[in-house]
Amino acid sequence: MAPVLVLWLAMSLSGTWAVDKGNFKTCDQSAFCKRQRALKPGDSPYRALLETMELTNTRLTLQLINDNNKVRLLLELYRLQGNMTRVKINELKPLKPRFEVPDVLITEPSTEPLSLLSQDENGVVLSLGTESQRVIISARPFRLDIMEGPEVLMSLNSRGLLAFEHLRMRKDTSLLIHILAQWMISIFKEEEEKVDGMWEETFKSHSDSKPNGPSAISLDFSLPGVEHVYGIPEHADTLRLKTTDNGDPYRLYNLDVFQYELYNPMALYGAVPVMLAHKAQRTTGIFWLNAAETWVDISSNTAGKVCSSETPQTDVRWISESGIIDVFIMLGPTPKDVFSQYASLTGTQSFPPLAAVGYHQCRWNYNDQEDVASVDAGFDEHDIPYDYIWLDIEHTDGKRYFTWDSHKFASPKEMLQALEDKKRKMVAIVDPHIKVDSNYKIHNEIRNKGFYIKNKDGGDYEGWCWPGSAGYPDFTRPDMRAWWASMFAYDQYEGTAENLYTWNDMNEPSVFNGPEVTMHKDAVHGAWEHRDVHNLYGLYVQMATAEGQIQRSGGVERPFVLTRAFFAGSQRYGAVWTGDNAAEWDHLKVSIPMCLSLGLVGISFCGADVGGFFKSPSTELLVRWYQTGAYQPFFRAHAHLDTPRREPWLFGPENTALIRDVVRQRYTLLPYWYQQFYHAYRTGEPIMRPLWVEYPQDPATFALDDEFLIGKDLLVHPVTEEGARGVTAYLPGKDQVWFDVHTFQKHNGAQSLYIPVTMSSIPVFQRGGSIIPRKMRVRRSSSCMTHDPYTLYVALNLQRTAEGELYIDDGHTFNYEKKEFIHRRLSFAKNMLSSVNLATDAEFSTGSWIERIVILGASKPSKVTLKTADGQESQLEFDFDASMSVLTLRKPGVNAGLDWNVMLQ
Amino acid sequence: MHFHMIIVAVFWFGFVDSRKIRGISSSYKRFFRERKSFLCIDGSKIIPFEQVNDDYCDCEDGSDEPGTSACPQGRFYCTNLGFRPHYIPSSRVNDGICDCCDASDEYNSHAHCQNACWNLGQRERAYVEGQMRTLDEGLQLKQQLIEEGVLLWREKQAQLRELQQVAEDLQTKLEERRSRKQEADRLKEQTPRPPEAGDGRLFRGQNSTVTGTFKLLDSNKDGSITVDEVQAKVALVHDEERVLSEDEAVIKDTHGAPGVGEDPPLKVADREWEATNLKKVEEAYDTVNMEISDLREKLAIDYGPDWEFLFLNSQCYKLKVYEYTYTLCPFNQVTQQSTAGTEVSLGRWGMWEGPPKNQYGRMVYENGEPCWQGGSRSTTVTLTCGTETALRSVKEPSKCQYIMDFQTPVACQPVLKQRGIHSEL
What we know:
Chain B: Pfam families: PRKCSH-like (PF12999), PRKCSH_1 (PF13015). By secondary structure, chain A is of the alpha+beta class. In chain A, 19% of the residues lie in helices and 28% in strands.
């Protein structure tokens, strides 16, 4: 949802559906950004004081001095395990401490030894241990170059844009001797403020008091040889980031943007300050650990040039409003190395309950229990599976979260039980704004405990949101989060049951009457200003909510929490969606790069509102959106309160059938999806991934964002054009083959393939060389399919081999952490398909068995022999389709958790 | 004892037989008679008979697995003795959820299903009986309402005729007044003398005529005529025809007046009086005409083949749902009133929109208060058979789109006594 109440007027006056850009700052309107951006590349005023260098086994420290104002900074440099370098820069003696982001790193990163290679008056060369990697610290001006062999991987401050606004006293407070002088100075100061906004800043009617004055930081990074950079979500933009020379930088500042516009660098609901840089030989990453408002400038010496003799280089510059410089340089060299490096810092995707990977039916709002029951029945009547039905804000008693409307949802436990009877679940929304109402228990407790964020004058901060006047709990406080978590206990949150999960919306936080529809930056979180912690707020809300769900089950059950706002590390707490999109074809298209960008920075569990939130989709758009959403990690249909109903069966039997078909495709693939989630949880690799991640040396893949891979084995090119008769998909891999999953037709890799489409088409290809498990008995919900047998799709490559995995656990508890699962490797080579245990220390039993094996690209055998673990052999019946070279083995019948092999002769 | 054993044996064989071909109805048994091989019902394939219901889908049409969940297109037959037999999708076999009331679909699952068919059957029978009673009663009531509707229709037609008569009369009078006024104006131009006193005969006569009609219509004596008043009076006229003729006589009487005198000069006050009276007659005429077009409009509405829905025309039905009170005035409008008191129109009478087989099953009210994202509120009213006329439920599934369930005997349709409940063994 979005702040309709506040902004609808603006929208209706302008008469368009675009965002009202005037509500959000440009760099020019954000004083620190304007100030910092005014600095142009050139000689840095910073000099490294080599005589101050201290080198221990794991840490180098060194003072930097700004020759213009003589303020000293302290540089810390660490070599981290897994091929990373951490650079921290803070004031040597700040007037008061500057904010350092807590709770994002999963642990203090492990360091590796640093050693001095050489030193003279111009600089220092340190060995970074492995692979002849060195860091060169130049003294005058200060710069850092990270080298490997003869190659410069990355340079810091090479363009001299390091800037560190030191904390200072207001000028008028240090000079109080003469009243006249004070008066003169105050006049002067006001002038200064008008130019710089250093001590006060106004935007529209909002004033930011800035009691700490200027505190911005900035640093530039040069990436030789790099022409492609990615990441820094969330922006409604292409996968490949654009240069920002002719416009605003990309902005990272969590904001509730009403009807956001596409293809521009405006900030959206979440922020992950991580950028990936890629060239054919190497992928690197920059993780700028700062939670304040941040802007990222990108320039390239080859941008816009067709042919250039220059060595390509991309230059990046980060600017943040407060805090310190704390940057993790992830040196790859492969994309997967970068994922693993970043995962070692901020953790991996939480492993969701299997049901959450199914289909979610949402709408603002399902009006009452009867409505919920009839929608639920509609799915059965039309034989469409789903796992979760969602309730938006109207289910509460007057937008008081943790409550139910006593008329419309008079017996929530009965409603939940009715869903449970069909093995289905529900999500109810819990937003972080709390209605100011002395008859509301949650409000009273938060107020009495002093848990609300304070305004600059020390009172409880109040803003306007759905319930009217609302307070905002200070989620940066561990005690507040613990209390919040305890509110999800079944005896606290009345009317709830095990199958009720949570949705955190509006957690940027959204404040309808605040500057840029969010919180005043001078609001106070204990020792820190909101300015310092803003981008962290949403992460904390989801963290505390997920913790509450874990606690209510005594630590047994996995949580499922959806969030709109996020930060680096949010992947540990659940799913995100791309917020309030619209029922437009371009919004469908942009859902792909938006989720791809999130995946690259660790947040795999991503989806967009199927159908589009605002406006009403045409039937064609709705069907196409289902087809796209079914192949994205988080698959939820959602709709605005003011739009007509759009449950899948409301568009005529033909379209119902199309939607049914694609939702069923999703469910047949749940074993594969689930295995991808397990893999993401283990490795931090994205589930939905750009092609270049798997084909890093193929430049044709570098900018593709109209198609993507799920894991490494499924390639999806959704139809996102109105009236499309065909799509052109790029199938990567010179020695690769790809099989159309619907027709089993084989295509060669490294080609652009035109695929004619009809309304029922969703072009999906399985990579030759892979084995994908499916469950073909699609039932009402994923839980109903738990004991069902598997069909294995074995797609042979040119070497006539294939590999795959099969992961099985109970689907909902944390017992997988106690090694209660089955993880098997399936491999096909030399005409034999075998299943071997990948986790011999794990134990789990399943009733599921192998129902069918479909081998794509096979030749006809004369006989097929199954051999089970106990050595018994039996012949399998089979069917061979010569036209498509598809061999189907009938009913091996072996338990999916056991060793077996099948021999083709 | 022996006898019992035989019974058990008979039961046992029956059981085995039905298990062999689990999930089919008796009419399908013929497809499963062959014991050596099985021909998929679509004729596409022959498979060994052991592969029927062996939990692997061999036939494209799913016909080899009527008793398992193996075929995506398959279906399972719930015999449901004591209740109604029906098919469920194969995907609901052994999914841990009881679908067949005889529990036959969960023969190999963790679900603990009880045979609930007998109870369901009882309930269903009671329900159907209740429905039948409602239907019988409703149809009787409907018959009465049809008879009343016919009478009402005639009455309304008569009312229309009366109103048309009044209109005709008023028109005559209006013409006369107009010509008088023209005459007066002409005279004024020709002889701008002040009118003489005492020459009030004509004035009085005219007064008695126009004011007489006016007074007749202005029953509450507030100096203006309302539609209600005209309506009431027309009814009165209809009841007591004589009044009308007397009035007519008066009008006729005055009509002859100009010929009697010799263009007597009129006073200024008289002229003004003339103008005022003309205006009043015009107003009365307009009012009656409006009333006529209103009535015509109402009579142009389709009230069903026997005018059985006509009686709803002047009625309104209310229902409180949560914080709102909804009012349905059939063939007129739908409104919603909040507890705070603000009233919002949810649509004005639009049309019948039932499906072809039940044309009078649904009404649509359109063009209510506009919605903020464009469009306007509308209400769809579904009519169902009941023994009394009442609004049963109101829903707003999408913003500004309301759905009402309206019960009335006139919605009762004579149907064949159907739906045999499978109760035989």
